[in-house]
Amino acid sequence: MDNIILEMRSITKTFPGVRALDNVSFKVSEGEIHALVGENGAGKSTLMKVLSGVYPAGTYEGEIHYDGEVRRFSTISDSEELGIIIIHQELALVPLLSIAENIFLGNEIAQNGVIHWPQTFARTQELLKKVGLSESPSTLITDIGVGKQQLVEIAKALSKKVRLLILDEPTASLNETDSDALLKLLMEFRKQGMTSIIISHKLNEIKKVADKITILRDGGTVETLDCHKEDISEDRIIKGMVGRDMDDRYPPREPKIGETLLEVKNWNVFHQHHRDRQFLHDVNFTVRAGEVVGIAGLMGAGRTETAMSLFGKSWGHKITGDVYMRGKPVDVSTIPKAIDAGLAYVTEDRKHLGLVLMNNIKENTTLSNLGAVSSNGIIDDRKEAKVATDYRSKLHIRSHSIYQETVNLSGGNQQKVVLSKWLFTNPEVLILDEPTRGIDVGAKFEIYTIINQLAAEGKGILMISSEMPELLGTCDRIYVMNEGRIVAELSKEEASQESIMRAIMRSGEKH
Amino acid sequence: MVADTSAPAAKPSIADYLKNNIREYGLLVALVVIMVFFQIVTNGVLFRPVNITNLVLQNSFIVIMALGMLLIIVAGHIDLSVGSIVAFIGAISAIMLVKWGLPAIVVVPACLIVGGIMGAAQGYWVAYQKIPAFIVTLAGMLVFRGMTYVVLGGRPIGPFPKEFQILSTGFVPDFLSFLNPAPETIKNMVALVAVVILVALAIWSGFRNRRINEMHGSENEPFVFFALQMAVITVVALFIGFQLSTYRGLPNVLVVMGVLIALYSFVTTRSTVGRRIYAMGGNEKAAKLSGINTERLTFYTFANMGVLAALAGMIITARLNSATPKAGVGFELDVIAACFIGGASASGGVGKITGAVIGAFIMGVMNNGMSIMGIGIDYQQLIKGLVLLAAVFFDVYNKNKG
Question: Which of A139, A398, B125, B320, by CA, is between 20 and 30 Å from A320?
Fold first, then answer.
């Protein structure tokens, strides 16, 4: 067990103005699952990029020992040749090619440039069996879910004779069933002697599979914990990550619930692309002033689709149903109308749908309500700068100024900019779709605090989340969705991970 | 992983500043270097008053179209049809003026409206039917060219009435001649006074901006650069103004062009419409979800391009004094090249009016300089192509290094 396969010694990597890694040491034994944790910006991905040769030898200080020898990788293919395969957070699959084509992309089974299809398909089938995916090799990537795509990535890694598999946030976009399947697969690989490094924010998962946990903080190694020697609690890991105890991951709140703000009745929506398929069935819900309402459910349950169809018909077609704001019917058929009605929608995908990454904080903050900082179509620079400065300090956005491009901000700070944008439209009800996805523990706490403040100011919050503890920790009431229907409404007292899962499972049996 | 942004950034040094803004200064430096180069190799012909006037007349339409094209490129699209719109507008202006004998005062606005409709017609397909602009405007390029042949019956029409030609060959009359201290050298006092006033305005607004920035704690460029830039602009502007004043003064086209440049700079930097176009080009989905009517914005961007192409079409037709079916062939490429040399990004969201204008002048000075040197059209094309590639490579190289 204690055969060291990888040792990274005193790795230091600097970017202009920033020391991303400072004297980091990292040791992995053969055949273990080693978790790498830390807040966003702690240096996890940078360390893995150094290891895989994305940052070639010479651009960092320190040594990499792999398989007993010092290695100097200058490209990714150098490290792949030795069986170090990294699967990035954003999957690198070509959507319109088949599973088989993707698995052997750049590594085709071919003679003189002519692909040997029968052999390719046979090999693919073998690999898919290994990862437990029952799909035809000729299925297009775009036709399978994210969970299965992740498995295809792993199959691709296996095709390259992987010895050290690195997974960067593999379960970030997976639901619990898919995550479990993936983790089981990793444990299966461990039995066969493969080594894995897993980067994750989901501490419960890490606890489930990891043999060792290395914690990074601010570009340095804090400690390596051995899960077999002691019982490691989540709080213990968090303490290492943030450098302080975090007794309560959710800030306390005294709910002061007022009148009903938003009411949605008989919301029916057909699928955006499969036009004759009804996707949402008779969805009804309410959000009251000062209330945080959660929507729980598995991936594909229709939560995001509910929010987006409500917000200016941004998703789906043949949308029917009634929307009331403070008891009065409102028109939400276009996004500007929905904004006028007092709705705001913070998307789950802040990089692609939330921010204009190449624009700065100021420009993103005022984008939805430019009219408020301009007269006759001319922007008042001072007013705009003041608005952005105010939100920057109110939401504690960490940046050197409001003129910093949002692409250079960490996930948590990007999310705060998106929140600023929507707060500036002065909404009555905010729909937050996965507001803490991919955000580190410290920033999550800040987002929860902001949510509490908004509720205290009398706004209604509708929060969609795949992390059940988060919903349980922040919401006053939780709706459970499954297969396009609301299948349960649970009060704070009734809600628990078990009761939510039970509601989902029961509804699944009915259909 | 993103570099840690919570750390307070150190005050950027002058070298850092230069590195981060090398593109903008580089462009200005490139223009000056190219001008000086041709001034030397043409033995001073380039900056002769008559040649400066020519330079302006020859390039005004490229600059004017580059203003609209920049908006289209920033919005994430492209317009290949402008050369054909130029030809078609030339043709119908000829029909109206020469065949029907309508007055210019009617024809000019009518042509601008027709241009706007042509642009809008393409904008409709791009914005509302989601057909890629490359395809729509490629179709437009063929359709409008074909329409030009139909309208003209394949034959050139001319000459044009004087009142129409003034548009491109006229000069601002010298109503300030009584102030002229040296009538021997200075033939047109208005040109000189106008340039002096403009330079003074530019310096004043530069200082004013710096003061406002300081008040809001936003970054100013280091004073050295500000001063150098102002000095270069002042010297060049005064020199050109003086040269023009010794000839026939300010060409009307230069005035039109100057007003449009100022207008579009203002729209792109200060107006909500401009801001929304940049946001849309940077991330269309995010802009849409922020409540921006991206379809309508795209539609108007193309309509605007049509109007500017129509204006350019009339200027060219008036200058050539004849409407021909082959007018404007290949102009779209010069216009697009000017935008890209000026630093616009092919994927949208990035680009400046000043960049596009300087880009157009870099192309213009090279065209003019090489023609004076007697370099054939074959080599001119070759050299311009390489300059375009080099400019964009410079961009990409800087981005990767940064």
Answer: B125
pLDDT digits (tens, 9 = 90+) for A319-348: 999 999 999 999 999 999 999 999 999 998
Q: Which amino acid is at A210?
A: A
Q: How far is CA A88 from the centre of its chain?
A: 13
Q: Which of B4, B279, B286 sits opposite A20 (nearest CB)?
A: B4
Judge whether A19 and A34 are in contact, CB under 8 Å: no
CA dist A367 and B299 (Å) reads 20
Determine contact, residues A322/A330, Cβ cutoff 8 Å: no
Token readout for A224 is 């390596």
Q: Which of B63, B86, B133, B125 is nearest to B346 (CA)?
A: B133
Same domain, A287 and A415: no
CATH of the domain at A272: 3.40.50.300
Signed CA dihedral, A64, B7, A240, A434: sign only: negative
The answer to whether B287 contacts A367, with C-beta atoms less than 8 Å apart, is yes
Which chain B residues contact residue A17 at CB under 8 A?
3, 7, 9-10
Q: Structural domain tally of chain A? A: 3
Angle at alpha carbon of residue B362, lines to B356 and B368, rounded to 5°: 135
Q: The whole model's pTM is what?
A: 0.81
* pLDDT value at residue A468: 82
Please give the DSSP secondary-structure letter assigned to residue A278: E
Distance CA B290, CA B313 (A): 37
Cβ distance of A41 and B6 shorter than 8 Å = yes
For B31-63, the pLDDT digits (tens) are 888 999 999 999 989 989 899 888 888 899 999
CA proximity to B276, closest of B76, B124, B65: B76
Tally: H helices and E strands in chain A: 16, 24
SS3 state of residue A69: strand
Q: For residue B187, with 0-12 CB atoms within 10 Å meaning exposed, 13-18 middle and 19 or more buried, which class applies?
A: middle
- Concatenating the DSSP letter of every residue in A337-397 gives HHHHTTEEEE-S-IIIII--TTSBHHHHHHGGGGGGGEETTEE-HHHHHHHHHHHHHHTT-
Helix (H) or strand (E) holding A505: helix A497-510
Which residue among A368, A400, A425 sits closest to B8, beta carbon to beta carbon?
A400
Please identify, among A426, A451, A485, the residue that sits at the C-terminal boundary of a domain. A426
Containing domain of residue A82, as a range? 4-242
How far A322 CA sits from the closest chain B CA (Å)? 21
Q: Which residues from B are below 8 Å from A when comparing CB atoms? A: 1-10, 212, 216-219, 270-273, 275-276, 278-279, 282-283, 285-293, 349-350
CB A431 within 8 A of CB A344: yes
A237 and A273 fall within a common domain = no
